[in-house]
Amino acid sequence: MDTMTLLHGLIGVLAGAALGVAFFGGLAATARLYLDGDLRRALPLHLARLGGMGAAFTLAAWLGGAAALLGMLAGFQAARMALVRPERREP
Fold first, then answer.
1. Tens digit of pLDDT for each residue in 18-52?
2. Domain count, the chain
3. What is the C-alpha to C-alpha distance for residues 27 and 1, in angstroms, rounded to an integer?
4. Which residues contact 22 (CB under 8 A, 6 or more apart)?
């Protein structure tokens, strides 16, 4: 594994973590808007989150290759694990 591959992977992890923080922060805002019944503001935010995530992962694969894409996925999942609370089940 050469230095550029490692660099692409590291940049992917950092970019994925930043994308995950933005995505799951937007998810919380979207959920609040849906619960308040504000569909006019929730739906565009929902579409922007999904479109932005798809564009970012596509760009990572196109510019950085597999190392950047896998690093970005790892960073995104790390952000998900840090930000999303597990569901509590009542016995």
1. 999 999 999 989 999 999 998 899 999 999 999 99
2. 1
3. 36
4. 52
In this prediction the pTM is 0.85
- Residue 13 forms part of a structural domain: no
Is there a domain that residue 58 lies in? yes
Alpha carbon distances (Å) from 50 to 8, 15, 19, 26, 28:
23, 16, 11, 10, 14
Distances in whole angstroms, Cα of residue 77 to Cα of each of 4, 21, 33, 67, 87:
23, 10, 24, 15, 17
Q: Which two tokens stand for residue 49?
A: 């989150």
Q: Which pLDDT does position 87 carry in this prediction?
A: 66
Domain that holds residue 30: 19-81
